[in-house]
Each structure stands twice: as structure tokens, then as C-alpha cells.
User: Fold this.
Amino acid sequence: MSDDAARLAAFLLDLYALTSTTASGEPNAATSPTGSAATSASLTASGSASASVTPPPHQPKIAKLLPPMAGLPPEQPASDFKGKRTAGIPVLMYHVIDSAPMGARYPDLYVKPGEFVRQLGWLADNGYHAVTLQQVYDFWHNGGDLPSKPVVLSFDDGNSQDFRIVAPLLNELGWPGVLNLIVGKHTPRLKPSYVRALIQAGWEIDSHTISHIEVRGLSAKQLAFEVGQSRTRLQQTYHLPINFFCYPSGRYDDAAIAAVKKAGYLGATTTDPGLAKPDEPYLMRRIRVSGGESLESFALLFTEER
Ligand SMILES: [Zn+2]
Assistant:
């Protein structure tokens, strides 16, 4: 890792320490009225959600702490992506940014905050700039612009850490996340006010079904519910187009793809490895980031996929 990336990683780690001082794993930690550092450095989960991070009073202004970054110009030129309109674009797949709890069934799905901030530092230092799937789609199909090295950071399911840990870090970089949200009630950890705060911070919200059921092999009625209804519910709740779908467990079949198209989505992401490409909008590939990966192997994810 270069000096710049190391400095950014150190800064983001400091920020993470600030935001997690009272984070108990419960969403309430971010909204407790104690006036703690964690509260003031977190996003505001309210109707008047603020996209900016307010530094605690005893800290220097956070912007001043940001090291000058060789790979992160302050303003991204609008149309400097050198790729062709047919270029593949990396979509990273994360699940939970946190330490895996003891006995976690799938510990690989947990990326520690320290690992995550070093990955962000590497991305920024290497000139990457996070964008949404909508921006990628618009670049491919509608003549839209992208920054020089686009990358999509997608977070599956809807975990409170997306609000407590990920969003404050991405905010410091001015980067959006993409949230693949399970709509049903069994994931109350990311309640609607938190989702609204993410939207205020520029995140894209995509559907990840209502019950997180594998959509391969479902009946037409079940597909209409999990694929179609999940979009409708998200649209009604957040007043957004909800243009992209994410297959739970990455599993799909022809009927599921047809249901995604019928429901009006512009595209869908899988867990098939590789770059997302414009000629397979309903089977966009992603690059899985597993917990415990070294920064060297993280960097290889990019060189190998290109
Ligand atoms: Zn999932």
C-alpha cells in the first residue's frame, strides 16, 4: 500500500473508531440522545436526514484531517472514463462490514471494518471512484458519463452496519453505496428511517426480494410477489424508481429472469464472478469480497477481472 492509501486508511480507521465508540450492534446506538461522539459522527436517522458528517465539537473539522490523495481528485471530471460504452465495470459484493460473531454460520460474509477501510484506501489511491448501477446503466445505454475508474460498491441484505459503519466512511470519500435490500420484516435491523438516511447520502436502493428466498424454481405467483411486489413496495415507501434487482444467493433461472424483466427492472446482479457487462443487463456479474482477504489479494481481484 502506498503512503497515500496508508494515510487514508489510518484516517478512516480513526473515523470508524469515532463512529463505533457506542455502537453496540443495535441501531439505537446511532440515534441515542447522549451527544456522544458516535452520535455526532453518524448519519442522522430522521426525516431530516443529513448527508453530511458533523464532526464532534472537540475534534478538528474532519475535512481538514483528510490527507491529500494522489488518486482522489477533489472534483471528478464528469466524462473522463476512458472505456468504451461496451466496457465491463467492477461491481464489488459485500455483506456485513463487521467482525464475525462467534459461531457465525458464514464467517466469510463478514469483512472487518479495518479491512474495509484499507480496501477503500486502495481503491481511492488507485484512482477508483464509486458510482451507482444507475450511473453505469446510463453510461452504457443513455450516453451518461462516468468518472475515470468506476467501481460499484454493493452491500447485500440490509444490515445496520451499512448505516452505522459503511455510510460514514463512504461519505468521507463522497462515494455512494448500492444497497440490495430485503424488503420483508425479518430484517428490521435497517429500518426505513435508516434507509432514508442512506438515500440522502446518495445511495441507490435495489430490491433483494421480500423474503430473501431463492428465486430459482419459484412459481409464477411467487415470482410476482418476490420480484414484482418487492419493487412496488420499495417504490411506495421511498418514492424511488428501484430499477435494479439482486438475486438472493445468486441463483436464477429463465423464469426468474423473465419475471425481473416483466416487473420493469432495468437490470439485475448475480454472484457470478466477473465484470458487469452491458450485453447481459439481467445477469450482471459481481466480484465477491470475502472477510480475511489480504490487501494484495483484494488488488488482484481487479487485475484478474480486467
Ligand atoms: Zn442476500
User: Anything to note?
Assistant: The mean pLDDT is 81.
